[in-house]
């Protein structure tokens, strides 16, 4: 179990899966063979499969223990969920995520808050689980805080993931719609970072002068630090996503802010430093 501290806050990564994903050129239309050449030597083999050209990425949550609260950031794909975006994640039936949560010393009923950077299916799946044919909130004692604009976006779009991962939480009375810059307290707060989705937020953690930020899907691969213009096919608003990515990269380059990513290969967190062309991701050692 990989953990780190931000002042008095304990953080653990709860991994659901880590493996090959789409071909990198399918995910990033700009990532042609030629455009990738300068980066292959540091992307392979951790972030890019040398044989197939497929991206390698984890799907994971962050378990955050502050002096006051136990908070889950993002909820992976979950079991028995429906998606046609990436076949291996359709109707997943794996105990990996639950076992990793247990290994972190946490039961679902111990979680106080669930936060989702956005409501795509691979960030909200464990919000619910199937019990006797019914979708039930996985975290029965938690408040699920949904950022207003993201909730509205996902509700307007509808679809199976909203029906499976969000509606049952609202029906159980556990969902609360909050402002896009909502603060739980001095330790944990949201910041609107629209682009990947029209309501995407990042989640800040701070304690004793230390700071970290979980950036959700602002970037999907470390290659985007050097090529922040490269958008992914999952970005809703390409120009807004680009502007947001650059703003975050600029703001935290050469700072002590620990950047926690959703999908960079393990160990997934690190620090932004200047790169050859733009920025580079310096993976954390602990
Ligand atoms: Zn994602």
Named CATH architecture: 4-Layer Sandwich
Mean pLDDT: 97
Would you give the CATH topology? Answer: Metallo-beta-lactamase, Chain A
CATH superfamily: Ribonuclease Z/Hydroxyacylglutathione hydrolase-like
Overall structural class, as computed from helix and strand content, comes to alpha/beta
What is the count of distinct domains?
A: 1
Which sequence of strands runs across the widest sheet?
A: 1-2-3-4-5-8-9
Query: What's the shape?
Result: globular
Strand content: 25-35%
What small molecules does the structure contain? zinc ion
Mind summarizing the main beta sheet? 7 strands, mixed
How many distinct helices?
A: 10
* Highest-level CATH class: Alpha Beta
Describe the overall structure.
It is built from 10 helices and 15 strands. Strands 1-2-3-4-5-8-9 form a 7-stranded mixed beta sheet. A 6-stranded mixed beta sheet has the order 10-11-12-13-14-15. The chain is of the alpha/beta class and 286 residues long. The protein binds zinc ion. Zinc ion (ZN) binds next to α5.
Task: Give the gist of this structure.
With 286 residues, the chain is of the alpha/beta class. 22% of the residues lie in helices and 30% in strands.
Characteristics of this structure?
alpha/beta, binds zinc ion, globular, 286 residues, Metallo-beta-lactamase, Chain A, 15 strands, 6-stranded mixed sheet
Helices and strands in order:
Elements: E1 3-6, E2 9-23, H1 24-27, H2 33-36, H3 40-43, E3 54-65, E4 70-73, H4 96-103, E5 113-115, H5 121-124, E6 128-131, E7 134-137, E8 143-147, H6 148-157, H7 160-165, H8 167-171, E9 175-178, E10 188-192, E11 201-207, E12 210-214, H9 223-226, H10 238-252, E13 258-260, E14 269-274, E15 279-283
Parallel strand pairs: 4-5, 5-8, 8-9, 12-13
Antiparallel strand pairs: 1-2, 2-3, 3-4, 6-7, 10-11, 11-12, 13-14, 14-15
The structure holds zinc ion (ZN).
């Amino acid at each position: 179990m990989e953990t780190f501290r931000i002042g008095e806050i304990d953080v653990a990564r709860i991994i659901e899966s880590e493996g090959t994903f789409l071909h990198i050129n399918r995910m990033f239309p700009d990532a042609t063979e030629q455009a990738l050449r300068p980066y292959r030597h540091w992307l392979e083999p951790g972030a890019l499969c040398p044989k197939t050209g497929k991206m390698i990425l984890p799907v994971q949550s962050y378990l955050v223990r502050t002096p006051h609260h136990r908070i889950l950031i993002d909820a992976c794909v979950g079991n028995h969920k429906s998606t046609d975006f990436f076949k291996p994640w359709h109707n997943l039936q794996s105990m990996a995520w639950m076992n990793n949560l247990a290994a972190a010393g946490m039961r679902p009923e111990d979680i106080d808050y669930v936060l989702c950077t956005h409501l795509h299916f691979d960030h909200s799946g464990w919000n619910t689980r199937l019990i006797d044919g019914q979708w039930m909130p996985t975290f029965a004692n938690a408040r699920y805080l949904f950022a207003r604009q993201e909730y509205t976006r996902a509700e307007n779009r509808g679809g199976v993931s909203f029906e499976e991962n969000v509606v049952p939480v609202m029906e159980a009375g556990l969902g609360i719609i909050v402002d896009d810059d909502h603060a739980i307290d001095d330790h944990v707060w949201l910041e609107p970072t629209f682009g990947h989705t029209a309501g995407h937020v990042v989640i800040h953690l701070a304690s004793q002068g230390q700071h970290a930020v979980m950036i959700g899907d602002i970037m999907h691969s470390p290659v985007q630090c050097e090529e922040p213009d490269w958008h992914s096919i999952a970005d809703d608003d390409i120009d807004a996503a680009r502007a947001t990515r650059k703003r975050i990269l600029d703001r935290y380059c050469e700072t002590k802010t620990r950047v926690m990513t959703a999908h960079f290969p393990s160990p997934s967190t690190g620090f932004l430093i200047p790169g050859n062309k733009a920025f580079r991701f310096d993976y954390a050692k602990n």
